[in-house]
Every structure is written in structure tokens, then in C-alpha cells.
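Sequence only, no structure available. Ideas?
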Amino acid sequence: MTTKITFDEVEVGTELPAQSFHVTRATLVQYAGASGDFNPIHWNEKFAKEVGLPDVIAHGMFTMAEAIRVVTDWAGDPGAVVEYGVRFTKPVVVPNDGTGALIEVSGKVAAKLDDNRVRVDLTATSAGQKVLGMSRAVVRLA
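Reply:
I predicted one. C-alpha cells follow.
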């Protein structure tokens, strides 16, 4: 695949299309099966509360993966991402209420780098709280 966006098309401040990602308990069970991470804080409400959490929480790596989708969808090629990192600041709490949680992600080109690369800063929130900090991706564009 090749990127849809070219380096010359973007400027510092270019906003990526924001996206929202719905998370339910079923989503977490599916992710646990795919990742092999069966920590009970991600599926057992009683256990999660016993260890001091407000409820079951989404896997950090799941949250991170959902956030980068904003970048890969914008670029048109997941292989264009050459660096990606985050800090986990707050958990995504996923209640067992039939609705679950929503992760809302926006991004902006923060810097143009050499070699047709740009740095994209992401903001990810859930229930009005920032769930990822220092969320940054470096993307090589065409």
C-alpha cells in the first residue's frame, strides 16, 4: 500500500479526521483472546473493584491501537507509521451496561520532519478524561 496523503499536501496544524471507537465488555473479551492478555481487571468487575479500580478497564494496548487508527486511516497505509508511543494517563472504564465506553481520538500534524516524515500528536479521551498522554506518531508520507 502507499499513503493517500503526500508530504507537500500537509502543513503544521493540519487536523486529521477525528474518530470515536465504541468499547464493550464483549470487545474486551475478543481482544483478550487475540492478545492472550486475560488479566481479570479487563473482564471481572468484582476483581477490578477489589484492586481499587472503578470497574473493568480496557487494555492499555487496545486503547493505544484504537488511537493510532486515526493516523493509519488518514495516511492510507499502516506501514507508513515509523514510530508511535504513548503514556497511559487514565484507564478507559467499561461498564457492563449494554453501552460500554467511547474512546474519542483527534490528531494534528505537529511538525514536518526530514525524509517526507511528519509528527502527528494525538488526543484520546474517554468520559471526558484524557486517557493517553504524549501520544505521538511519526509517519512517512509519499
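The mean pLDDT is 97.
Hope that gets you unstuck.
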